[in-house]
Design a protein that fits this description.
7-stranded antiparallel beta sheet, single chain, 11 strands
Length: 204
């Protein structure tokens, strides 16, 4: 089998980014809610996202630096108020999630822009997405910078302090039902995928 060889040091950051998002697929989407010191709620999707640990329950998502070197509102808010919500994205919310990816002025809320109803959290200040089937209230554990300059990133590691699940998400055995969740995944470019065929493998 012949293989293409690519040296990342020979690619521009933009080219490397495009390559990564096309190869590391499908990626779950963290719909992250934060709040500014002025009380303005922010909502944005991030697809470099995953679970980290169960004890303590921990997740991570990555916030890339803009091409002009500035930091996104989500990271600015978490630095000021170290709390955030993570809502998952089902197929029914795909269009609204995509709308919250717009680059808005810092003083404008994506909740209002995308006509998404925020719902107050119980243990933290940032709101969560009312229409999400799963929402997690998180407190900041650690910020880990990776690289410098445009398209570098900061890993946001958060500890989950409360979960909200829509009725019916858990099956009779108390396990999340993938069909009910109907999560979408991020592919490269403008492409997404939806939950399709599944298969099982017994672990050795």
């Amino acid at each position: 089998m012949t293989m293409d060889r690519i040296d990342p040091s020979e690619l521009s950051p933009r080219k490397m980014y495009r390559l990564l998002i096309g190869l590391v697929t499908p990626r779950p989407i963290a719909w992250v809610g934060t709040i500014s010191p002025q009380g303005i709620p922010n909502l944005a999707p991030f697809s470099f996202f995953n679970g980290v640990a169960a004890s303590p329950p921990t997740l991570v998502f990555s916030v890339s630096t803009r091409r002009d070197g500035s930091h996104k509102d989500t990271l600015r808010n978490i630095r000021d108020i170290p709390e955030f919500t993570v809502s998952t994205v089902s197929y029914a919310q795909a269009e609204q999630m995509n709308a919250t990816a717009a680059e808005l002025p810092y003083e404008e809320s994506e909740f209002s822009y995308a006509h998404i109803e925020p719902i107050p959290s119980e243990r933290i200040r940032p709101p969560r997405v009312s229409l999400a089937k799963v929402s997690m209230e998180c407190v900041l554990h650690q910020l880990v910078p990776v690289g410098d300059g445009p398209l570098s990133a900061t890993l946001v590691i958060g500890r989950i302090v409360l979960l909200h699940l829509e009725n019916g998400v858990l099956d009779l055995q108390g396990e999340p039902d993938p069909q009910v969740l109907d999560h979408i995944g991020r592919l490269g470019g403008d492409s997404y995928c939806r939950m399709g065929e599944r298969f099982s493998l017994k672990r050795p």
